[in-house]
Amino acid sequence: MQQFVFWTGVYNLIVGSVFLIPGSTNIVGIEAPEVMLWLWLPAILVIYLGILLIFCSRRLAERASLVFWEGIARIAVFIPLAWFGFFTDLGFMVGVIGVIDLLIGLGYILGLPRALHVPARNLLFDR
By the 8 A CB rule, do 65 and 86 touch? Predict the structure, then answer.
């Protein structure tokens, strides 16, 4: 599970970096907004979460609650990303990123309790 958390952190760093490089969103098929602030703020947040996940992967048993809550956030983010990616003209890749986030979030929520041999409610309430 530590490797999975580490590599999803690296994935966050890559995705966030792509959104920070001007013009790179057009290459991957995502329509950038006119005001770049709305692209850069989520990118910086995604990069921060990637760094957080990499640090959490080093001592996962102690920091598993943060990763568990990250899984909940990823599942919640799936809904707007899927909507904007598949049903608007923002870009199909946005929907694909949403589906990847859903799978990673489910991996966290289902995998962490099994890997650490603790109930999910202990991770949810940081016990």
Answer: no
Q: Which two tokens stand for residue 122?
A: 């202990």
pTM above 0.90, yes or no: no
**At residue 115, what are phi and psi to the nearest 5 degrees?**
-70, -35
d(CA 67, CA 74): 10
Alpha helical stretches, state H, the chain: 2-20, 24-27, 37-58, 60-87, 92-116, 120-124
The crossing angle, in degrees rounded to 10, of helices 60-87 and 37-58 is 150
The tokens describing 3, both together, are 């490797």
Residue 117 pLDDT level (bands cut at 50, 70, 90): very high
Of 80, 74, 75, which Cα lies nearest the Cα of 15?
Answer: 74
Q: Is 30 exposed, middle or buried (0-12, 13-18, 19+ CB in 10 A)?
A: buried
The reported pLDDT for the residue numbered 94 is 84
Judged against a pLDDT cut of 80, whether residue 28 lies above it is answered with no
At 52-105, the pLDDT tens digits run: 999 999 999 899 999 999 999 999 999 998 998 888 877 788 888 899 999 999
